[in-house]
Each structure stands twice: as structure tokens, then as C-alpha cells.
Design brief:
The protein is α+β, with helices and mostly antiparallel strands and about 100 residues long. Helix content is about 20%, strand content about 10%. InterPro entries: RING-box_E3_Ubiquitin_Ligase, Znf_RING, Znf_RING/FYVE/PHD, Znf_RING_H2.
Length: about 100
């Protein structure tokens, strides 16, 4: 009959295999938009829309994301929704996910 005995490890196995001297983490990121151009006014989303550029309201122009993950200038989408309550790109009923710069 065999008895269960604890496994013994040698002192060599208990020594550290390596020690960490320096660690440089790297972060990866991506834009959370499928396209970086507003499909309504055709201006880059990082810039103000045409209406805000002409009215000198560049600081007030923000981006709006829909539940479908498409993004547009908030000014452009506000006018679009008055005529059609669907996303201009995928035609899904428009509902705002978030608004931000």
C-alpha cells in the first residue's frame, strides 16, 4: 500500500528563475469610430463642421455617436434627425449612445 507523501523540492528549484529589473508597459489604442469623416457634411470629425466653422463656433462643435456606433457632428445630426430619424449610413432608427469631443 502506497502512502501519500509530500513532494520535496530541492533548494535549486526554490530559487528564483529570474528577477524583473525594469518594465516598460506599452498601451495600444484605436479610434472608436468606423470612419473619421462626418457622412453629412464630409468634414473630418476632429474639426468643426462647416456650419460651426462659418459661425466661428469651432469650440462648441462636438461629435455624437449612435447606438449603431456611427458618428457625426452633433450639429449635422441634429438637422438630419428633424427630417429623418434614421442613421444616414445604416438606416437604423437613430438613438444617441454618447456625445463628446
Amino acid at each position: 500500500m502506497e502512502t501519500d507523501s509530500p513532494v520535496q523540492t530541492s533548494s535549486e528549484e526554490q530559487q528564483k528563475l529570474f528577477s524583473l529589473k525594469k518594465w516598460n508597459p506599452v498601451a495600444l489604442w484605436t479610434w472608436d469610430v468606423e470612419c473619421d469623416t462626418c457622412a453629412i457634411c464630409r468634414v473630418n470629425l476632429m474639426e468643426a463642421c462647416l456650419r460651426c466653422q462659418s459661425d466661428s463656433k469651432s469650440d462648441e462643435c462636438v461629435v455624437v455617436w449612435g447606438e449603431c456606433n456611427h458618428s457625426f457632428h452633433n450639429c449635422c445630426m441634429a438637422l438630419w434627425v428633424k427630417q429623418n430619424n434614421r442613421c444616414p449610413l445604416c438606416q437604423v432608427d437613430w438613438s444617441v449612445q454618447r456625445v463628446g469631443k
